UniProtKB/TrEMBL annotation:
Upper lineage: Bacteria, Pseudomonadati, Pseudomonadota, Betaproteobacteria, Burkholderiales
Name this polypeptide is given: Circularly permuted type 2 ATP-grasp protein
Length: 476
């Protein structure tokens, strides 16, 4: 299988936007790079940028490996990506508003009604609820890969509680500290203003009539795998980080307990899944949420970002319909490719998937983090047999896709510089005032040779993502 190399063309020539980096690599002694890699590890550990890996016996937390070779995206490539992601997130927000109101797309027969109404992530409690600006997914993480001759494909849309933006920001800070001379050779678009954009987005969706909203970040607590990010973003925005026990509802209004007495809360950037948000409305055994929160939300006195019920739009069984959403709501053709998808609930698709399991990637509809999936070309005969049984037993719980030839990028591994597969998660912010994003995102890289699984929970690492502001290479 041929893989698109982000840095070098097939004839070995370095792509224009990588030339300054390649020249720097050629002129930098390996010992210096090794020393800087060690420095980065120490610094990340000191800052506390760790990731809790569930189910691992050896230690509750570990460092996400950081690779010091940046992933570089040209200005024109980024413009295409940005337009495609704005289009996609706009259509997804329209879809979410529609399915909780008029359901026009279901009545038009473009998406099977049972795929939405019977979806575990569909929240009937949200029917008829008007959210500020009609925005449901205020923060979206869209996973994009390059395949084939370098075309961009959207792998999935993360609309519930997408994480990883803190690593994007810390990776940039680390690279600027370690290699200031590299930034003199490139015009790299900044990302450090993301917390300001996030805060502006959250303030813009405050309930009607609230001019100076109180914004908080709601975390499940210190044992959550993304707790570093929750505390980091609250600190960067200058807002309170709260747990469910810090909030209470009185007269359908949310208040925060403070040393000066109760303070009204207007916008909650929640990093807790729907099921645990309100024990009165969802899981009665949840100790993480706020009793009565949904009453206040439905009364319009508080905004939740992201909205309750957004999960139906990032479900893998809905993913194949996003191109139709773009055509239906926007009257446009999709800018970014989607991956051809077999829906195992369809008998013909299931028959094809079972006959070609060794060639396909099979994913759980509700799966995340690289778990519950089969990568056919890498699977053992036993794994294929086990997945065939799972598919026959619960076909509507799975989709399948061709194995994409993910692009690769030079990465430092134990044996030196070697190509490794990667993806990109840009973060898209939506409010009633429009769709905005910083140029870049979180690049995740599969550190194991030949692996196509980039998730941190599966041993992947991260890279700084550079979007060039123009085509010039600065410096020698």
């Amino acid at each position: 299988m041929d893989f698109y190399n982000e840095m070098s063309a097939a004839d070995g020539r370095v792509r224009p936007h990588y030339q300054a980096l390649a020249a720097w690599l050629d002129s930098t002694p390996p010992e210096r790079i090794a020393r800087k890699r060690a420095e980065a590890d120490i610094a990340f550990r000191r800052v506390g940028i760790t990731f809790a890996v569930y189910g691992e016996e050896a230690g509750k937390e570990r460092l996400i490996p950081f690779d010091i070779i940046p992933r570089i995206i040209g200005a024109d490539e980024w413009q295409t990506l940005e337009r495609g992601m704005r289009q996609r997130v706009l259509a997804l927000n329209r879809f979410l508003h529609d399915i909780y109101h008029g359901q026009d797309i279901l009545r038009a027969g473009l998406i099977p009604r049972e795929q939405v109404m019977g979806n575990a992530q569909y929240r009937p409690i949200m029917q008829g609820v008007d959210v500020p600006g009609g925005i449901y997914a205020h923060i979206a993480g869209v996973d994009v890969v390059r395949a084939g001759a370098g075309e961009f494909y959207v792998l999935e849309d993360n609309l519930r509680v997408p994480s990883g933006v803190s690593y994007m920001l810390e990776n940039r800070k680390m690279m600027m500290r370690l290699f200031p001379e590299l930034f003199a050779r490139h015009q790299i678009a900044p990302v450090r203003h993301y917390p300001d954009l996030l805060q502006e987005t959250l303030r813009a969706v405050a309930p009607q009539g609230v001019n100076d909203p109180t914004v908080v970040v709601l975390t499940p607590g210190a044992y959550n795998s993304a707790y570093f990010e929750h505390s980091f973003l609250a600190q960067q925005m200058g807002v309170e980080l709260v747990e469910g026990r810090d909030l209470f509802v009185r007269n359908d209004t949310v208040y925060m307990r403070t040393t000066q007495g109760p303070r009204r809360v207007d916008v909650i950037y929640r990093r807790i899944d729907d099921d645990f948000l309100d024990p009165e409305a969802f899981r009665a055994d949840s100790a993480l949420g706020v009793p009565g929160l949904m009453r206040a939300y439905r009364a319009g006195t508080v905004t939740l970002a992201n909205a309750v019920g957004t999960g139906v739009a990032d479900d893998k069984s809905i993913y194949p319909y996003v191109p139709e959403m773009i055509r239906f709501y926007l009257g446009e053709e999709p800018i970014l490719n989607s991956v051809p998808t077999y829906m195992c609930r369809k008998p013909d698709d299931l028959a094809y998937v079972l006959a070609h399991l060794g060639e396909l990637v099979v994913k759980e509809v509700h799966g995340a983090g690289g778990y519950g999936m089969l990568i056919g070309p890498k699977a053992t005969r036993e794994e294929i047999t086990r997945f065939a049984a799972l598919l026959r037993d619960k076909p509507d719980g799975y989709i399948a896709q061709p194995t994409l030839a993910l692009s690769n990028c030079p990465t430092f591994v134990d044996e030196g510089l070697a190509p490794r597969h990667l993806d990109l998660r840009p973060f898209v912010l939506s409010s009633g005032q429009g769709v905005r994003m910083v140029p870049g995102g979180l690049t995740r890289v599969a550190l194991t040779k030949g692996s196509l699984v980039v998730n941190s929970s599966q041993g992947g690492g991260t890279k700084d993502t550079w979007v060039l502001e123009n085509h010039a290479n600065h410096g020698a």
